[in-house]
Amino acid sequence: MTAGTTTAPLLGQTVVVIGGSAGIGLETARLARAQGAEVIIAARNPERLERAAREIGARSFAAFDAQDPQALAAFFADLPDQIDHVLLTGGGPYYGLLEDFDFDEAERSFRDHLFVPVRIAQLAVGRVRPSGTLLFIGGTGGRRPGRGLAMIGAGTAAMPALVANLAVEIAPIRVNLLAAGFVDTPLSASLLGDRLDARREELRATLPIGRVVGPQDVASLAVHIMQNTALTGATYDIDGGQQLV
Questions:
Q1: How large is the average pLDDT for residues 29-38?
Q2: If DSSP codes are grouped into helix, strand and coil, which group holds residue 223?
Q3: Residue 116 to residue 142: CA distance in whole angstroms
Q4: Where does the chain show beta strands of DSSP type E?
Q5: What are the sequence ranges of the domains in the chain?
Q6: How far, CA to CA in Å, does 225 sit from each of 12, 85, 167, 175, 231?
């Protein structure tokens, strides 16, 4: 093993992060860049995206909504002829009791977590190099039934099956799922509002790891999966043992 391989394992590779302006996406882009990759990031908010791109030294960036099929296709058409890895981060899950169920919000969440990955898989064929990977973000929180969890439970069950089937269909491109619990990101802060600190304290007291999972933890796993070409079709839980307590 050469020194270059040790210090820059992604040298010469191109990593695309959709949802790369904050949280898990930004930390993954930052780590991939530190390990030698060229990084292209995309997100909805152009100002925040431009700041993130400057901060990490991204090769390029594009502001668009990944739920827009035409915008997503145009983004892929503008990418280099060959890329190596694509990470898609999703928006927050939809929680809703049956009596006040919002079908529009539920549909948006399903498109975000299930239909957008399928479109990305279609667009990746011929663009992502063999043994490169598609990485999607799911969750572990919907594995236990509960009030208001019908849609998140359905999505949590569907994503591993989707990823396993895509891994077979578009092989040798690899497809994997990161199933996270609570991650201390700006998205979590926006969802919890003034309950954020209490949730952090609760997790510190109850999680087996004794601390809250951060975006850097998920980014480290994502970059490891990019490097390990034996991994495909699998779901990797990263929740600090949240399911166990």
A1: 97
A2: helix
A3: 20
A4: 14-18, 38-43, 60-63, 83-88, 128-139, 174-180, 235-238
A5: 3-238
A6: 17, 10, 14, 10, 7
Q: What is the pTM of this model?
A: 0.91
Widest distance between CA atoms in the chain? 61
Tokens describing residue 105: 């919000």
User: What per-residue confidence (pLDDT) applies to 6?
Assistant: 57
Which residue has tokens 């190596």? Answer: 84
- What is the homologous superfamily of the domain 3-238 according to CATH? NAD(P)-binding Rossmann-like Domain (3.40.50.720)
Pairing of strands 83-88, 60-63: unpaired
Q: Are 52 and 21 in contact (CB under 8 A)?
A: yes
- β partners of residue 15: 39, 85
Residue 42: name the closest of 59, 17, 25 by CA: 17
Amino acid at 32: A
Query: DSSP 3-state helix, strand, coil percentages of the chain (rounded to 5)?
Result: 50, 20, 35
